[in-house]
Amino acid sequence: MMTGPDSSHNVDTEIGGGLVVTGAAQVPGATAAREKLIAEGVPGLLAAGDPTLWGPEAESEARIRLGWLDTFKRSREFLPRLAALRAELREAGLDHIVLAGMGGSSLAPEVITRTLDKPLTVLDTTDPQQVLATLRDRLDRTVVVVSSKSGGTVETTSHLRAYHQAFLDHGLSEAEAGGRIVVVTDPGSPLEERARQLGVRALFLADPYVGGRYSALTAFGLVPSALAGVDVEVLLDEAAALASRLAEPTDNPALALGAALGAAALAGRDKVALADDGSGIVGLGDWIEQLLAESTGKNGTGILPVVLEDPDAPGNTGPDVLTVTVGGSLRPTPGKGQVLRDGLRVNGPLGAQFLAWEFATAIAGRLLGINPFDQPNVTESKNNTNRLLEQGLPTTTPDFTEGAVEVYLSGGLRAGSVAEVFQALSATSGGTYLAIMAYLDRYADREVAQLRSLLARVASYPVTFGWGPRFLHSTGQYHKGGPTSGVFLQITGAVTEDLPVPGVAYTFGQLQAAQAAGDLQALASRGRPVARLHLTDRAAGITQLLAAARSSGGEA
Fold this sequence. Notes:
The chain is an alpha/beta fold and about 550 residues long. The chain contains 21 helices and 17 strands.
């Protein structure tokens, strides 16, 4: 362990601010990268909020995006108001908290509440089946937290429209319906204006100097978590303890992590396999996935997170893979294989984890020579979606149909069965990763996620899995802005019961279909292999897909 300013940086374990990072010095090039960063004064400059660290082109963006470094201080200001609001809601019998948000507005609260075992329903989809199921769940006891930084996120504004109408249909007055809604947004956003029009129960204006994916310790992460029953002040205390080490050249685990991530990517290990280590933190990989992919996946480069089911899941090793296990404040029990011999362990409390990964991502961005605070390719699929909603979906004919699965192939893919589709996707020349993108109900259709591990057993490159459209706010940036070497599998499903989006001319089913088609167009325009599997019967189709994956060699 490092003990002072003369300590070598090539030690295996670094401890500081309640966080422990093990294995960083074993990553080739990490020690040299770290020493260069220290020689250039980067830790201190970043901790002080210097916006010049990523070059002149990034400076204007960085100048308004570094508030995450000390937002844990400002966030304390609204904690008394949050506590009073929760007590007020409980007294009124409103104990079912629903969070309507996407990406940075929903991922952190989901991790926080799952880790601390507090009930929170997260609505981050346009799938009409999932939206309807959520709307019909305990509506008489529901308060919906509507979170959007920009205030114009189409999914979230659609959720607000649907919930407001549902409250009215339930017999509430306009004033009573507004009393069931809490809004979190940036100052001056369209959502702030809409909230005031609706007379919502509470409006929280978030820190405008923090980007969405860095917003875990702002109102976006804390409001829904606190209303669900989490003592969020503990998270702020944990972050504060780590913040005291960020400027230091030694005993700085966040610096060690960032240097390792950047050095590994520069050396060709640009896939980061992420797994919970079983020591208490649940689902952090999904939050890290958005942070890393959207921050670094641009200009033809980037770090691709691969979220694993557990540390020993298929895809945890490989010549281009850096394995990272994350967990609680206790040191994890050693596991199997190369996961602990040839990877990183990042252990510490959740508040420190949030700040450490944000700091490390900014460090990795400097090493990669990119701006870690913009997302230049995210709007492409959004623009395609809007155009398709206006003009109508394209007419397409499947290449073939097998059972409950219609198969559409592009980018040079050839197959005559679903099993052959999987075989082709798993061994495409020039491919460096396979991304599975499922526009389905992530609760009712959750078994389809098994495809990741099944295909990872046979694929010649790492395999990721994302639920649409939420991955568009995460790995979607990497898919289009990162290396043009992805291979893509899109899964869509028949809609048996649709739901109009109140106040607009489309339904949730049409919005979901337009999002899937718009993203498909964005991927196909890059000439990459893309297969779309449309399930005419969701349950039967998922069973069929899993059977085909197993027959392709994916069975353990």
